Amino acid sequence: MNQPTLLHRSQSLWLGFTGIIDALRAPAALAARLYLAQVFFLAGLTKIRDWETTVLLFTHEYAVPLLSPEVAAVMGTGGELVLPVLLLLGLAGRFAAMGLSVVNFVAVISLSEIAPAALQQHITWGVLLAALVLYGLGKWTLDCGWIRPRLERRLARAAR
Q1: Interatomic CA distance for residues 94 and 115, integer angstroms
Q2: What is the rounded (10 degree) CA torsion for 58, 60, 65, 66?
Q3: Cα–Cα distance between 122 and 77 in angstroms, integer?
Q4: pLDDT on residue 149
Q5: Residue 84 phi/psi, 5° resolution?
Q6: DSSP 146
Q7: What is the chain's Cα-based Rg?
Q8: Per-position DSSP letters for 80-123, written without gaps between them
Q9: How many CB atoms lie within 10 A of CB 37?
Q10: Predicted local confidence at residue 146, as pLDDT
């Protein structure tokens, strides 16, 4: 009778472990999306609650290159309110993650002084957004879970 070798047992354990890790991809991506959506959406809500102060901040505190303070305020606030919803739902998610990366980057470069703790937060957000852009948003999205299957069925029917 053949007994499994140490190599076969090790390989079996490793495959089981990586299977568990693979199964955690979708919930991990969803957790990142939830966290990032909350951070950016709440920042957008703060800006629209007191629009005059927001425009003043973009006029005197945030030096957004190439844009007038009013345009920068509208674009930044709009991005912080629309893109997190798309990211959370997984609807054009990579586009939303790239857009939020731009918002995040512009926020960092537009501040004349940024506290080290705030910079670290922006770096964390940037890394999470980059991971979502590079590796995707996982299977738990409207794109993958709802739209793509319907589109594929329609295309298959049309091809017949």
Answers
A1: 29
A2: 80
A3: 17
A4: 87
A5: -65, -35
A6: I
A7: 22
A8: HHHHHHHHHHTSSHHHHHHHHHHHHHHHHHHBS---HHHHHHHH
A9: 19
A10: 84
Mean pLDDT by 10 residues, the chain (160 residues): 83 95 96 98 97 95 91 97 98 97 95 91 98 95 88 89
Structural contact between residues 140 and 27, judged by C-beta atoms closer than 8 angstroms: yes
C-alpha count within 13 angstroms, C-beta hemisphere, residue 83? 23
How close are the terminal C-alpha atoms of the chain, in Å?
52
Contact 87, 133 (CB under 8 A): no
Note the pLDDT of residue 1: 58
State pTM to two decimals.
0.86
CA distances from 144 to 18, 81, 93 (A): 22, 23, 10
Amino acid type, 54: T
Residue 105 CA to chain centroid, in angstroms?
13
